[in-house]
Design goal:
The protein has about 500 residues and is of the alpha+beta class. It has eight helices and 30 strands. α5 packs antiparallel against α8. The longest helix has 21 residues.
């Protein structure tokens, strides 16, 4: 009986152990024909970048090691978030961890999993969509048989894209990838969805062979748009057209919708859109100019610079935007004043003027001119006899940041009395030289020569009250030449004005 009891107990234990292991995952699974569960990891495409997962398939056993998710935003985009099966991830996601231009996450899936990155446009980036106006061989010039508008616009588009991409923080795309590929005008406009600017490139045509001006066609209400003005001025300047640029808009009969499909399309997706007509290919001079690749490259460089100025873009390694540096000139006004004038910098919102007592010294800001159309500044309360050095730069504000052009060349001027304004009359064997009062003058000096370009000798020094000098005892019928300059005494030293203009008379 004891033996039988022991055998029964042993059988019960074997059965219990076997039963226990039969429920342990993976222990006798191979013997039972069951495989560990597999999870598929897939990616949901999203605009603005790419997502990859490694590995794409895991089992219950390998899932614990994690799946690497690599998210690489396109240029101009950043990563807002990642979604797992359509929802924000929980603590099973680590990161993001920056890895060069990519972001890396690790996930630990417990089921089939979809991964989607959510991208956003990065602050400070500008997105430009370029549109070559036509495809194939379209719009032949009637005055230059070798010219086709479609060929010109395709070249210009590619040159402009290349030039724009020289700048940082700009993304440039084109509506078509091939010159032979057609696309509807409205669709070309809507291709700019999510972009900041849409530019359709063209040359114009008319029945007149003499018409020669750039035309910028804008969306409704944008005829005074600053960028449109800058581009019009740029094309006019580079092509040296015979007539001034114009800015138009054209609407349908409802007076609401854009007549041109590309502008209607771009407006429908919220993108600033323009058509750039590069003068008229019915004008022989313009058609020849637009047929030159070097000219088109020059145009692309200038248009890219105008766009960069408008959006505050600079090139790699540069802190300035491509505003044209002003050309500075200085004039002596009076004994304590200098007048500065400069050339207009297209696109400038203002100018900053700097001054120093030495050419290579420290330049301090003396004036910020808060208007791009103001081209003059009078610097007062200066010290007579002192030389001042000036430079100027243009500026434009973009997204709250002030961006500058390069500095102008340094110009210098000594402060001195203004040069006298003179007149002359002759009498019997005498000539009288007259002048107007010079502010701050201590006195005047009169000089005479027998030839206009001869040697001038000082003939008289007069006090500040003097307004004329009569030269007597001269030879009848002889011509004499005169000039005058004022002076001011500063600490015992005479500071002279420039010489007046030369005047002459023949003695009676």
């Amino acid at each position: 009986m004891k033996y039988a009891a022991r055998m029964f107990s042993l059988v019960i234990c074997v059965v219990m152990v076997a039963t226990m292991f039969s429920f342990a995952p993976g222990v006798f699974a191979a013997e039972s024909g069951e495989e560990p569960a597999e999870y598929q990891i897939s990616v949901i495409p999203s605009a603005g970048g790419t997502v990859s997962v490694d590995p794409e398939t895991v089992t219950e056993e390998t899932a614990a090691k994690g799946v690497k998710v690599i998210v690489t935003p396109d240029k101009g985009y950043g990563v807002s978030s990642i979604k797992i099966n359509g929802e924000a991830p929980d603590t099973t996601v680590s990161g993001p961890v920056s890895s060069g231009s990519s972001f890396v996450w690790t996930i630990y899936p417990q089921e089939d999993t979809n991964v989607q990155a959510v991208f956003h446009k990065s602050n400070g980036y500008v997105f430009v969509m370029l549109d070559a106006g036509h495809y194939g061989n379209v719009n032949r010039s009637p005055v230059l048989k070798s010219y086709y508008e479609s060929q010109m616009t395709w070249k210009l588009q590619n040159y402009l894209k290349q030039e724009l991409e020289e700048y940082t923080n700009v993304v440039v795309d084109t509506t078509r990838s091939s010159q032979s590929k057609d696309l509807g005008v409205y669709e070309r406009g809507t291709a700019s969805k999510g972009y900041d600017l849409f530019l359709s490139l063209h040359s114009n045509a008319t029945s007149s062979k003499s018409t020669d001006y750039p035309l910028i066609i804008t969306q409704k209400g944008n005829t005074k748009d600053a960028l449109a003005v800058m581009l019009g001025q740029t094309i006019e300047s580079v092509m040296d057209t015979k007539q001034d640029y114009q800015i138009w808009q054209r609407l349908n009969k409802d007076n609401k919708t854009e007549y041109y499909g590309v502008l209607r399309g771009s407006k429908s997706v919220g993108t600033k859109g323009m058509i750039l007509e590069h003068s008229f290919h019915t004008n022989l001079t313009a058609a020849k100019w637009l047929s030159s690749n070097s000219n088109l490259k020059k145009m692309a460089e200038a248009e890219a610079a105008a766009i960069a100025v408008y959006y505050g873009l600079s090139k790699e390694g540069s802190s300035t935007i491509p505003l044209k540096k002003p050309s500075l000139r200085i004039y002596n006004t009076d004994y304590r004043t200098l007048t500065l004038k400069w050339g207009k910098s297209v696109g400038a919102q203002g100018y900053v003027i700097y001054r120093s007592r030495t050419k290579n010294g420290t330049y301090k800001r003396v004036k910020t001119v808060k208007s791009g159309s103001t081209l003059k500044f009078i610097n007062r309360k200066l010290t007579c006899g002192t030389t001042y050095y000036y430079k100027i730069r243009a500026y434009r504000k973009f997204e709250g940041t002030t961006r500058y052009s390069n500095d102008s060349a340094v110009k210098a001027m000594k402060v001195r009395p203004a040069k006298p304004s003179v007149g002359i009359r002759s009498g019997k064997r005498k000539i009288t030289v007259k002048w107007k009062k010079v502010t701050g003058a201590t006195g005047y000096v009169v000089y005479r020569a027998k030839k206009k370009n001869g040697k001038y000798k000082k003939i008289r020094t007069l006090k500040r009250s003097a307004r004329s000098y009569t030269n007597t005892g001269i030879k009848k019928g002889k011509r004499y030449y005169y000039k005058v300059r004022a002076y001011r005494k500063v600490k015992g030293k005479r500071i002279y004005s420039e010489y007046s203009r030369t005047i002459n008379r023949k003695a009676k």
